[in-house]
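Hey, I'm writing a tutorial for new members on how sequence and structure tokens pair up, and I'd like a real worked example in the thread rather than a made-up one. If someone can provide the structure for the chain below, I'll link this post from the tutorial.
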Amino acid sequence: MELGTGPGRVRIACSGCTDVVAAGAPTSYFRIGGTVSDRVVIGLEVFSLLDRAFGFSLGDTSTTAETATATVVVLWFPSRRGFFFKGGVGLAAGQFTVPGTAGADTSNGGGIGLTYGIGWDFAISRKFAITTNFAAYVTAVGDVVLPGRRVDDVIATMYQGAIGFTFR
């Protein structure tokens, strides 16, 4: 089991968009799994990003963007020194909330999520390690309907640098 958090950067692109929007936001993840061999771990990883000052166009910071993925991941340790590669595929979801005159409008989307990255386990004991992770998460969440417009084919790419605590 592993818990981690760190800074992230989200980049949103969509079909028909003239601007590609990027913003920084906090991220977190939870991973649980088991060893298949002395160099391979398979698990389930849940990742989330929350940005309360997001915008779909330059200068707009009124949207709250939440994205999450639940993926099956494989961690491969090429040696016994702690360095690993990570890759996975699963489900993705996104929720965008825009304040309006009659309250907040919320739009949800769901689709496919992919992840890949690298990391290093710094073993403190046989049962505990501090883990660094550098990963990318690609989430295709579909169409987002905002007040007065529709954003087609939203794909969010998140980049994360995190510190985690691994309990074995």
